[in-house]
Fold this sequence. Notes:
Layout: E1 26-27, E2 33-34, E3 37-38, H1 39-42, H2 47-56, H3 62-77, H4 81-93, H5 99-114, H6 128-154, H7 166-175, H8 181-194, H9 201-211, H10 216-227, H11 235-246, H12 249-261, H13 279-288, H14 299-319, H15 326-335, H16 343-364
Antiparallel strand pairs: 1-2, 2-3
Helix pairs in contact: 2-16, 3-6, 4-6, 5-6, 5-10, 6-7, 6-16, 8-13, 8-16, 9-10, 9-16, 10-16, 11-15, 12-14, 13-15, 14-15
The structure holds acetyl coenzyme *A.
Amino acid sequence: MSDPSSDCKDSKNGLAGVTAGHTSICSLDKTLRYRGYAITDLLECSFEEVAHLLLWGDLPTENQLREFATRLHTHAQSLPETVLWCFSRLAKTSPQCSIMDVLRTGVSILGQIECDNGPEEMPHHRDLSQERFKAEQLLGHVPALLAAWIDCISGRQPTPWPKKPLATALLEKLCHTQISDNAANVFTKTLILYAEHEFNASTFAARTVTSTGSDMHSAIATAIGTLKGPLHGGANERVLQQLMDIGTLENVGPWVARQLENKDVIMGFGHRIYKSGDVRARLLHEAGHQLDDKSASFEPHRKLEKLANKVEAVMFEKKRLKPNLDWPTARIYHALGLPINLFTPLFVVARMTGWTAHIIEQMSDNRLIRPVAEYRGPSPRQFIAIEDR
Ligand code: ACO
């Protein structure tokens, strides 16, 4: 019998290079663009401006931005009591669980409360303005879910959602301190770079769920579960763990050699699409320098940067592989004082924009996503009744 794992590198494995549909949300040709705008221009925007662009198709006017930000703030302020009650119970029974599971559960509860997608609702009957309302609600609710869970497990009383740009408000909520403009600025850039990336695994999973006629909350819960995987969003948490494990400059060479010898992937390197470097990683690496305030307290982060630079050099020398976005993001989140288990959940907060935009795009021109597989199992064989086997 042929072994299906014996030919993993055929061109279609993992759908590599396969065009699986069309989109007008994001393009990766030459540079990354959201709805036609170059990412370098969008990095000067607020996160809300980019979220509006992705969800509504255009950059907002000042009035539209004010109204959009107010709506998101209202949603962030108004998490249903049922969710908070469930979280307070779960915080007692499973305080150590993955925060990705918390967000997935939170979105599922929200979907149930909303009665998203009654059974009679067919994809072509959907009211897309209603779906955009749900999307905005989720864009406000999800960061609030994250902050609510952190309050629950730390035994803190919830406080009102700050009336500030979403990125600043969230960072303040998570760090429990006033945030400098510099920190807010760099954090915003991480969210903008994480916001959208075409048919990546989690977005494609969300579109597949949507294509069956299922509801937005089910698609988002699926996307969160997909992003959790270490080959996708989960990589950013492992990047920092790796650097901690390596520890010293002298250990970089032997550590990388050991990983490669064991055929273990090095997190934060390589990308399915970017074979000569992830443009986002370069842009964020540059932005990250803004955090260095030249103070003595920043010295541990400077050391981590040196370590990271050496890993990059060795990886390029040994494998010709360059870093992806998770590589600089992990160090930036660490320098901002965020704990490692928040890194991938923050990716969720950002990617909610891209996911919801894709879900709505799929709904607006839907066809069931159902590819075919090349069969590699046994040839036809004679059935033998159980008593004769
Ligand atoms: N470390 C070591 N070797 C690697 C790495 C890595 N990070 N990435 C790719 N390679 C090697 C492969 O082992 C393979 O080598 P071989 O030809 O000698 O067998 C070669 O490079 C080609 O790699 P593929 O597996 O074909 O690349 P693929 O497109 O399937 O995988 C992926 C892309 C999953 C991102 C991979 O590079 C990886 O596992 N990276 C680490 C996880 C990671 O950082 N994920 C974050 C992705 S970006 C994001 O989600 C924002």
